[in-house]
């Protein structure tokens, strides 16, 4: 069987809404560099493949469709790409994958930002593409108007069409991001004093992308990043996002709740992309019956959680992405208990070997111009 | 008391000034280069590190420039990484008000301020060319006369977003289970000519309250924008006291008229330097650098930015081109800021300089574009920097070099100790934020 991959998803104080009240939680530090450096260092101690850093342009809300007025949960978050860049020089091996919203942002800026993350991490960058449009997000920008989406109208054909269009737009977005990464050949910089040329302009390429929602000419201002193509990931809960992932992503995160569902998802995805990770919320402190989530919640000992991971791996999942319920408590338990348990079973690495994230995930190296 | 000189370090201009052919020239893109330059500036007790902006590769007659250094990182991303390898240095990003949206940019700048412990700064620039717009959703929609309107409104929105959280909004009291002290923290709404936005901002109040704002502004609108509620610091193009003092005083007077306390708008010219043990050696070294920066071909291209004609047929060692400029023709060079507003006047002036000094095309280009403000021995340069600031020429300088990434090393090794001896440069950092470095107050904010 192939090597198991483990990712950790970081978000605020953890994925449990009351995580910030845990005795070990540091809610006053959520907006400091030290907090994020500590979490990434802990994940790196556990030889984790990569961390994802969650983000959204809107403020957190218990209501999926609109801001709420709760004061008893964590509210406020920093830009994930900048957190990623801030922690990159303080780490050496772990992949760093911030979430980026594709709906309102500029693909040109995102492409150069993730390329730069790849430079400052020397080949450990990725990105999780998020499709926006809900919860008052459009009003933050004031540039586009989408009808308000709610539970009541979610199934309306017009709303379903709108959602499908946002995913199409995100696929175009990723295509532009990727083609800009590939717009410089590796050997474009020649520094040829004899002819007075710094670059060979024949090795820079316009992308001339023209789509329904935007056009981008290129080339990038940033040379081809160390990995060529940083790793693109997406989270999906159904057919529409699976199709986005098939077209645009290297890694798809999915949320199976039982073995039958887990099999069905793999069958539907059918190898596109080849790397499918199952998301699991992990609570080492035991079950909380009041806590629900999009992903399956696994609670118990390291051995019990390892059993579930092993089962998913046997079904054909390349890996799992663990969402610690409580930070840092459940992350420390991952590194101190779960990882050693998976190592004992021969499922997980005992040291870092590869230097780039693509290599670690077994993604084929891409030659310059592969996307042209 | 001796006035303190503000020092910024500007790395890696992607233009003719940066010598890529020098054996000591390093990578313009590897993080190690940025780290070296920033750590050198911090070793020299500089106030901040400064990066320019590029959103498109320059072209000449539809072909990408190949003779200058190109290839740069995303500014905010590389500054966030530099926060890890520096402790006191301000981190100033040049970012465009045209090809960004206030919500996203304010969020990124507030994030940088949090992640650097209060060291973020923003040099706000605007642009209106369709050429750059081809890389963006927006295209090049902005009329030239709307640039200041947009910049001003952009800054107003950004400040409203930064003020939408107060320092006391996060209580995070585990005992009572109360995370926020009020349910509407971050709420904002703005409606203007350029922006119509509302919602809740996600970033709690950052250490500086608001990042430090810098701006270029020599035009009349720029000066007024600078003085009234605009930036905390502005760039000045003046390097002689005769030109610099009136500008400096005008900015102070305009600021006072807006009720701002003395010293609340800093004036900072950019400056390059060439150092040597003797003045003669320094002049010779400058000559060599300028000739390396401006080759015959390079000279033709620099003059093309003003003539707006293909000058490749004119001998660089011969006289200036005998044709008139073609200001209304399609731009021969794209993606480069236009620095000369009136080509005919500029060229007339150049012709008389060339005639007077018997300059060839290339020599004239070197005279105009190879100018270095501070050439001399360490003592001469320290004295001139010191005197300029003590005599109301400016509040300090943004120092650049022709070499990436080690160009600042000799300045820090040889000039900085002399400034410290004169009492005009700190020997250690006193505060923790960029505002502390600059002696600027921290905005209290209006939310809550």
Automatic annotation (TrEMBL), chain A:
Q: What stretches pass through the bilayer?
A: none
Q: Which GO terms describe its molecular function?
A: monooxygenase activity; oxidoreductase activity, acting on paired donors, with incorporation or reduction of molecular oxygen
Task: Write down the superkingdom of origin.
Answer: Bacteria
Task: Identify the residues that bind FMN.
Answer: 55, 99
Which InterPro entries is this protein grouped with? Diverse_substr_monoxygenases, Luciferase-like_dom, Luciferase-like_sf, NTA_MOA
Residue stretches making up the Luciferase-like domain: 31-270
The record's keywords, sorted A to Z, are: Flavoprotein, FMN, Monooxygenase, Oxidoreductase
Q: Does the keyword Magnesium apply?
A: no
Q: Which family does it belong to?
A: Belongs to the NtaA/SnaA/DszA monooxygenase family.
- The name under which this protein is listed is FMNH2-utilizing oxygenase
What are the top taxonomic ranks of the organism?
Bacteria, Bacillati, Actinomycetota, Actinomycetes, Micromonosporales
TrEMBL record, chain B:
Decide whether keyword Flavoprotein is in the record: yes
Is the keyword DNA repair in the record? no
Enumerate the Gene3D superfamilies for this protein: Luciferase-like domain (3.20.20.30)
Recall the GO molecular function terms of this protein's record: monooxygenase activity; oxidoreductase activity, acting on paired donors, with incorporation or reduction of molecular oxygen
Q: Where are the transmembrane segments?
A: none
Entry-linked InterPro entries: Diverse_substr_monoxygenases (IPR051260), Luciferase-like_dom (IPR011251), Luciferase-like_sf (IPR036661), NTA_MOA (IPR016215)
Where is FMN annotated to bind? 94, 148, 219
Luciferase-like domain: residues covered: 26-390
Pfam hit, one: Bac_luciferase
Q: Which domain of life is it from?
A: Bacteria
> Keywords of this protein's UniProt record, alphabetized?
Flavoprotein, FMN, Monooxygenase, Oxidoreductase
Which family would the database say this protein is a member of?
A: Belongs to the NtaA/SnaA/DszA monooxygenase family.
According to UniProt, the name of this protein is Nitrilotriacetate monooxygenase component A
Organism name = Paractinoplanes tereljensis
Q: What is the lineage of its organism?
A: Bacteria, Bacillati, Actinomycetota, Actinomycetes, Micromonosporales
